[in-house]
Design a protein that fits this description.
There is one protein chain. The protein has about 700 residues and is α+β, with helices and mostly antiparallel strands. It has three domains: about 200 residues, Sandwich (Jelly Rolls), CATH 2.60.120.430; about 280 residues, TIM Barrel; about 150 residues, TIM Barrel (Alpha-Beta Barrel). It contains 14 helices and 29 strands. Strands 1, 3, 6, 8, 9, 13 and 14 form a seven-stranded mixed β-sheet that branches. Strand 4 and strand 5 form a beta hairpin. The radius of gyration is 26 Å and the shape is globular.
Length: about 700
């Protein structure tokens, strides 16, 4: 999961402590729509705007086009704005539509570009109502609650980089890659004050002995060890009463549907214009999965001990919950990225199931997923969960080794592989062999993802920005020499002025000839990458599917290469729903597609962050699940979708990157979210009839 836009629901329910100062006080209006004309600080990018009155409020109506980042952009007529002394910016947004709309805000210093010199955050504008969208600005000061992407009282924190509030150059309200046109009404743009230091607003400790937020209450909150035991007994009783889904074969395929060729392995086939997976026995299969069914999540307790009302002795019965980690990806600089960690989920399982908790938890998890109508274990499930599985699953590997990365390009998780390095291919073979020797003979294994959300954007400009001996650069220059012969001819075609081949870079503004050449190389590079991975899988797992690399974006040349090579193309699609027109007709890539990740989260059960797509509460979260899965099933290009993830992330952040999202079907106390469970049962029961057209 790549963190692009952390979500903030306007109705914050993050446990403000009673009696403490209001952190949203001291407001100051900074933009008015009361005048006869549009504000002179407004710039439009792929939007239409008009003054409007909604519920007696003077407002701005914004019609957003279907493009990557349509926005209304506000900038001072001269100089900069000084927002010193304020904690953040807020705007009220009315959504006149019948569906929730993902909306985002960005605040810039000079040079703000979405990653540098800016803060940015997203929210959800709820249907037919006003939502207050607040961004607590990051000024780079000390954070008393480090290592968490969302914190008490404030909720989600912005992404980007620390900014100087005395030198604000712009702010904008935008939609992140909308798949359809939307209209929103904006009003009451203002700054709000600190309302006291955060450490004064949240008394310590703020985490109870079950890993839950101490200063709030909600339905289902665990308050005693006996609650866990009672919940276990109740759930086991409910399993016995839950009927099996009708018309399913032993793999979870559609037993009532057509009988196709049985090969003994999962495969793909297009039937009546719709792509399907096909079970080893020849039945149609739509993959409904859950990622990360495992117990490994830990949070740092190093230099955080006062946060927790309880931490056991390390040599106690809770010893399996402790560990030591190093090499945190982000948000743990204060301890050098390393230190003691603890898993409250593990501790709760020990309380709930006793000494045999690993096996009992695993069997209970299988029973849950079957009862809820899931038919697939998604990516990154624990080894023993896959090894003992009686239901289909996917497996994965990353590619690692001593080959070179593209030095001139960036990347969130790491720099991009250089697929032209001679050491890359043997590294792929080794990594693929390691995973396929475990599952290559298992017909329950649908196939393999290789890599996840890798930095394809680095290929376009990073190739020529790399040192002269970078293998992919050498290959690209070779191709350009073959086409143009001389540097002079290339300079003339590109409108460039390179003095020698080593100095050649992709111009900031690519003309048509340059764009054509760069796109051709991106395709060639991607094609080589996918072919190397495919060929390794054909050697070690020839009867299983190659499921691609789980795109977080849709770079067209890379997608085309994936479609030319992979059996199934995979995306992680954090949208409110799937718009079928984006994936069919002229947008059809000619291969089946599987969604590796999606989720929704809310802030009404003691969590501090919603994850990447926000919901109003657990009821709305369940509604979002129904809508999303149905939209996937309705699109003929897709063969399944996998929810990220089984368990909520730790309240105080997973150790390696601080994510602490309400994205589980199960809380950290091992308590299922009843609303999500009922939604899953409902939509999963209807999935085959709906997709075939019988149940719509």
């Amino acid at each position: 999961m790549l963190l692009l836009f952390p979500a903030l629901c306007g109705l914050l329910a993050v446990g403000q402590v009673e009696g403490n100062p209001n952190p949203f006080g001291n407001e100051k209006a900074i933009l008015s729509f009361d005048g006869p004309g549009l504000p002179d600080c407004l710039v439009r990018h792929n939007v239409e705007v008009a003054l409007f009155e909604q519920d007696g409020r003077k407002s701005l109506r914004v019609d957003f086009a279907v493009t990557d980042w349509p926005n209304v952009y506000f900038t001072p007529k001269s100089g900069t704005w000084d927002w010193s002394g304020f904690a953040g910016i807020a705007v009220d947004i009315y959504n006149p539509e019948a569906q929730a709309v993902s909306v985002a805000m960005r605040i810039d210093n000079a040079g703000g570009d979405g990653a540098k010199n800016c803060n940015q955050q997203s929210s959800t504008a709820l249907p037919k109502q006003w939502t207050t969208f607040r961004v607590h600005l990051d000024t780079g000061g000390p954070n008393p609650f480090w290592g968490m992407r969302g914190v008490p009282v404030k909720g989600p924190l912005p992404t980007g980089a620390a900014i100087d509030l005395a030198k604000i150059t712009a702010f904008q309200v935008f939609l992140p890659m909308p798949s359809e046109k939307h209209t929103l009404i904006i009003s009451n743009v203002r700054l709000f004050g600190h309302g006291g230091k955060l450490e004064d607003l949240v008394p310590l400790p703020f985490v109870d002995r079950f890993g839950q937020y101490k200063h709030a209450d909600w339905p289902g909150k665990i308050k005693d060890d006996k609650d866990l035991i009672a919940a276990r007994k109740k759930e086991e009783s409910e399993f016995r009463k839950t009927p099996k889904l009708r018309d399913r074969d032993k793999f979870g395929g559609w037993a009532k549907g057509p009988k196709l060729k049985a090969t003994g392995w999962f495969r793909t086939e297009k039937v009546d214009g719709k792509w399907w997976l096909v079970t080893p026995e020849g039945r149609l299969f739509f993959s409904l999965g859950v990622d990360c069914v495992g117990t490994w999540d830990r949070t740092f307790v190093e230099k955080r001990e006062p946060w927790f009302e309880w931490l056991p002795a390390e040599n106690s019965e809770f010893k399996p919950a402790f560990g030591y980690e190093k090499g945190a990806h982000s948000m743990a600089d204060i301890i050098g990225g390393k230190g003691r960690v603890f898993g409250f989920y593990n501790a709760n399982l020990i309380r709930k199931y006793g000494p045999d908790w690993p096996a009992l938890w695993r069997e209970n998890s299988y029973a849950r997923l079957r009862a809820w109508g899931f038919n697939t274990l998604g990516n990154w499930c624990q080894g023993d969960v896959l090894d003992n599985s009686r239901m289909p699953f996917v497996a994965s590997t990353g590619v690692w080794g001593d080959y070179r990365r593209i030095e001139g390009g960036g990347g969130y998780w790491s720099k991009m592989h250089d697929a032209y390095d001679p050491k890359f291919e043997p590294a792929v073979r080794k990594c693929v062999e390691n995973v396929t020797k475990q599952y290559g003979g298992n017909p329950l294994c649908i196939g393999y993802f290789v890599d996840n959300e890798i930095a394809w954007e680095a290929v376009e400009r990073g190739t020529l920005a790399s040192p002269a001996d970078q293998p992919c650069r050498v290959e690209m220059v070779k191709r350009l020499k073959e086409k143009y012969g001389t540097l002079e001819k290339l300079n003339a075609a590109w409108g460039a002025s390179a003095k020698d081949w080593d100095e050649l870079r992709a111009p900031d503004d690519m003309n048509e000839a340059c764009r054509e050449d760069v796109d051709a190389f991106v395709y060639a590079f991607a094609r080589r990458y996918f072919e190397v991975c495919r060929d390794a899988l054909r050697v070690h797992a020839p009867r299983q599917l190659y499921l691609g690399s789980r795109f977080s974006s849709r770079p067209p040349q890379v997608v085309r290469a994936a479609a030319d090579v992979c059996d199934v193309v995979s995306y992680n699609l954090y949208y409110s729903s799937i718009n079928g027109a984006d994936w069919t007709g002229e947008n059809d890539i000619g291969k089946p597609i599987i969604i590796g990740e999606f989720h929704f989260g809310a802030l009404d059960r003691g969590m501090f962050h919603t994850g990447l797509v926000a919901a109003e509460n657990q009821k709305h979260r369940a509604e979002c699940y129904r809508k999303y899965v149905r939209s996937v099933a309705d699109c003929p290009s897709f063969v399944g979708c996998h929810w990220f993830q089984y368990i909520d992330e730790p309240l105080t952040g997973r150790w390696f990157d601080g994510e602490n999202y309400n994205i589980g079907f199960v809380s950290q106390s091992d308590t299922p979210y009843a609303e999500m469970v009922e939604a899953a049962k409902e939509v999963h029961a209807e999935i085959y009839e709906r997709r075939s057209g019988e149940g719509k």
